[in-house]
Amino acid sequence: MTIAFKPDETFRGTYTYRNSPQAIKRFPFPFHQDQYMYSVNMEPHTKGPEGSVFENAFDIDEHYIAEMRDRAITLERDPGRCVSLPHMMDAEWDTLELIMESLSRDYPELFTLTKDGERWHWVNKPLGIDQTFTFGDAATLPCPPFEYIGRQCQGDFVIMDQRDNNLFADSGMITSQADWSLMFDAGMSFMEWHGPVPLAHELGVFDRALKYLLMLQQSRPVRRLNWTMTINPRLDTSPETYPEWGPDRASVTPDNVGDKVHLRVELQALFRLPRSNGMLFSIRGYLASMNDLATHPRWAKRFHRVLSTLPNELAEYKGLVRYKPTTIEWLSKFDDGEVLPGGTQP
Amino acid sequence: MSSASLNVEIRRIRDLAPGIREFSLSRTDGDDFPIYSGGSHIVLSLPLSDRPHRNPYSLLGDPTDRKTWRVAVRKQEDSRGGSRWLHEQAREGMRIDISAPVNLFSLNRLGRRHILVAGGIGITPILSQARELARLGADFEVHYAYRAPEYGVFVDELEALAPGRIHHYVQSRREQIEFSSLLAGRPLGTHFYICGPGGMVAASMNAGKALGWPESHLHSEQFLAPTGGEPFDVQLTLSGKAFTVPSDLSLLEAIEQQGVDAPYLCRGGACGQCELEVVDASGELIHHDLYLSAEERASGKKIMPCVSRLKGGCLTLNL
Ligand code: HEM
Ligand code: FES
C-alpha cells in the first residue's frame, strides 16, 4: 500500500487540512445506533480489514507528515506537553520498541528497523530520519526515548504505571487533546483523571473499565472509540491554548457548518508493556468535516439523530452546546427519517 | 485465550534438590520469547490423561535471554497432578503450550527500598524481582528461608546478583525469619514482597499490619485465576443446539464453535454485550464477570458467557 502524504497541510492559522475520499471512507465513524451513551466499549485490538484504521496496531495515514510537524510546533511552544516521571524509563523503552517494531512490520516501505544485539538502526523515510542507537542507552538518542518515538508516530500517548491496583498517568505526549491538560493530569490515578466526566461514574463504567484493564495481558491489546467535536481542523485544542480556539465555537453559522464543524473520533488502544508492566494508551485522532460526513448519507443521518438525542450533560461536557443547534439544523437536510439498521458502515 | 499461547519444547530438565526440578523451555517456532518483568508467571498446559491441566509457574531466569525461559517446580504429592506429571512424565524434547507472561506480583517502581522474602520454592518470582532491582540499581535485600542446606536452590545465582544482600534462614539449623523485627522501623517508602507457604505469607502480612504498614506496601504473589473450569452441558433453545463446553474453552467460545452467532465485545466480563438469558440451570452458576449486579446474580437469570460457566449439570440458554 502506498500513502500519498500531504506534507503541507496545516492544523492552525490557514487550516488547509482536507481528507481525500479514501480517508473519508476509512474514517472510524463511531455510532452503531441512533443514540449515544457512555459504556465500557472495549474490544480486542485485533487486525481489522485491509485499508481500515484497524488494520495495524498504529495507523499511519495521509496526514502523517503534517501532523508530526504540527506536533513539533506545539512542543516548541510548550515543552510541557511531553512529560515523563523518572521511574518510567523502562516503560519509555518499551514504548519505543513496540512502536518501532509495529511500524517497521506494518509499513516496511516507510520504516525499517535492523537490530544487531542492542545496536539498533531505525530509518523513517517519510520524515527523513536515519538513526543508529543503543537500545537502553538514552544518551545515544537526540532526546529521551518516549519523546523520540512520540515525535514520529501519529496519535497522542499516555503511559501508565500500574501499582496499588490502579493506573497512574506518569508519562504523556499530548499535543492534540480534547480540552484536557497533561500538566494537570500527570501522576493522577484512573478515577482521578476521569473525575470531570459526567454520568459514566454513576453507570459504573470506570469501575469496570479499570478492573478489566488491570488484567490486560501482553500481546492482547484492546481498543475503544471516543468522540467529540472540533471547530476547524485543529489538533491543539488544549486548555492551555483555549484563547486561540475557544472563541471559534461562536463562529459557526448555517453557511459554514459544512466546512468548520468537525466530528473528532479517537481510536484509543491499550497495550501491556513487557519490561515495566506498565500500559501504553494511544489516542489516535481522526477529523471529518460535516461536508466529509455528508458524502456518506447514512453517516449524516445517523449523526443527526445522535446529536439530536444527546443528553445535555454530555453536550455540555464535550463543549458542543453553542453550535449544536446550528449543526443539527444543517444535518437535518440529509435525514429523511429512514430506519437505519445497526452498525457503523458508510 | 489460545491466541496468545506459545508452543515450547522442554530443552533441559535439572534436578535441583529432592522434589525440585528446573525446566528450560525454548520456542518450537525458533522465534524470540517476549520480554517480561520481574514477578511474572506463565501458565503451562500439561497433557494429563483426562484433560489438559493448567498450572501457573513463575519465570525465574534472565528476561533478556530471549531464547530460553526457566521455571522450577516442586513436586506436590497432594496436587491434582500437574506437578506430579512434570516430575514423573515430562521428558526433554516434549512439547507443551504455555501462555504469554502475566505479572500480578510486580515491583513498585516508586519504592525507595525493597525487602524480598522467599520461602522454599517461593524463591522463583523473588529471583526475577531481584534481577530486575539489580538491573535498575535499586536498594533491596533478600531473605531466603529453606528447609535444609541442600534445598537452598539458586543461592549462587542470587549471591551473584546482590552480593552481601542475601540473608539465609535454614530451618534444619533452627533459623527462622522474625517478621516483626524484619519489618519494624523501616523508613517510609519501603515495599515488602513475599512468596512462600501460606502460613508464612499470612504471618508476614499480620506482622506488617500490626506495625502499621499500609496494605499497598505489602505484596504477595498472585496468579491469574484459571480461565477454564469443569466441563458442562449446554442447550440453546432458539437454535436447538446441544453440546458440551470442554474445560479449556469459555462458554462463549464453545457457542461460537457451534456456528451460533453470539454478541460480544470485550471478552473479559466488563462490557455487558454478551449477556445471555438463563432459561434453566441444573447446577451452580459460577460468575466471573464485572458486569452483573448482586441482584442479577442472585436471580440466576443471567450469565456473561465470555468468562462465566456452570458447575456441573446442564445450562439452558435463550439463544
Ligand atoms: C487507561 C487509559 C486512559 C486514559 C489515560 C484516559 C484519559 C482520559 C482523559 C484525560 C479524559 C478527559 C477527562 C477530562 O475531561 O479532563 C478522558 C475522558 C473519558 N474517558 Fe478516558 N482514559 C483512559 C481509558 C479509558 C477507558 C478504558 C474508558 C472506557 C470506558 C474511558 C472512558 C472515558 C470517557 C467516556 C471519557 C469522556 C469522553 C468524552 O465524552 O469526550 N477512558 N479519558
Ligand atoms: S463480551 Fe464483554 S462482558 Fe462478555
Architecture blueprint of SSEs:
The complex is a heterodimer of chains A (about 350) and B (about 325).
Chain A: H1 21-25, E1 43-44, H2 64-77, E2 82-84, H3 89-106, E3 111-116, E4 119-124, E5 129-134, H4 145-150, E6 156-163, E7 166-173, H5 182-185, H6 190-193, H7 205-214, E8 222-231, H8 242-245, H9 257-260, E9 261-272, E10 279-289, H10 290-294, H11 297-309, H12 312-318, H13 324-332
Antiparallel strand pairs in A: 1-8, 2-7, 3-4, 4-5, 6-7, 6-10, 8-9, 9-10
Helix pairs in contact in A: 11-13
Chain B: E1 6-17, E2 20-27, E3 41-46, E4 53-58, E5 69-74, H1 82-88, E6 95-98, E7 113-119, H2 123-136, E8 140-146, H3 155-161, E9 166-170, H4 179-182, E10 190-195, H5 198-210, E11 218-220, E12 232-236, E13 242-245, H6 251-257, E14 276-281, E15 284-286, H7 294-299, E16 302-303, E17 309-311, E18 314-317
Parallel strand pairs in B: 7-8, 7-10, 8-9, 10-11, 12-18
Antiparallel strand pairs in B: 1-2, 1-6, 2-5, 3-4, 3-6, 12-13, 14-16, 14-18, 15-17
The structure holds protoporphyrin IX containing FE (HEM) and FE2/S2 (inorganic) cluster.
FE2/S2 (inorganic) cluster binds near residues 269 and 274 of chain B.
